[in-house]
């Protein structure tokens, strides 16, 4: 679990449709399991608005992004995470499934770089 292994502050994001108090329970669990390490955890809520059959398109071209945070640091982190999507500055090449897997291996499993401004 991230709480027992973390060595530096972390932002933990709940990313699905979950009951309303999930964030509070997650923060409590992180605090309990991470108390030995003294690492600070921030929890953000980021519910998805993805429709079946158009989920990838909905993610890449959102009509809204909802983020729940408790402090400015977490807000800045979430804005940075979503910046490439919101600014449309990302490369999203399409290829056959096998080619995509080979490309991932060729690049050493690293995430694709953002497109130049």
Q: What is the fold's blueprint, element by element?
A:
Elements lengths: L1 H4 L4 E5 L7 H12 L7 E5 L9 H6 L11 H15 L10 H10 L11
Parallel strand pairs: 1-2
In short:
With about 120 residues, this protein is mostly helical. The protein contains five helices and two strands, in the order H-E-H-E-H-H-H.
Written overview of the protein:
The chain is mostly helical. The protein has one domain (2-106): NAD(P)-binding Rossmann-like Domain (Rossmann fold). Helices cover 40% and strands 9% of the residues. It is built from five helices and two strands; from the N terminus they run αβαβααα. It has a two-stranded parallel ribbon. α2 (22-33) links the parallel β1 and β2 (41-45). It is globular and about 45 Å long. The N and C termini lie far apart (38 Å).
């Amino acid at each position: 679990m991230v709480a027992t292994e973390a060595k530096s502050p972390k932002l933990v994001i709940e990313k699905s449709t979950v009951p309303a108090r999930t964030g509070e329970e997650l923060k409590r669990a992180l605090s309990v399991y991470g108390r030995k390490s003294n690492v600070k955890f921030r929890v953000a809520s980021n519910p998805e608005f993805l429709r079946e059959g158009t989920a990838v398109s909905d993610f890449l071209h959102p009509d809204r992004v909802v983020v729940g945070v408790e402090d400015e640091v977490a807000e800045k982190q979430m804005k940075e995470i979503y910046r490439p999507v919101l600014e449309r500055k990302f490369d999203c090449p399409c290829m056959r499934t096998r080619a995509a897997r080979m490309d991932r291996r060729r690049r050493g499993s690293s995430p694709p770089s953002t497109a130049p401004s």
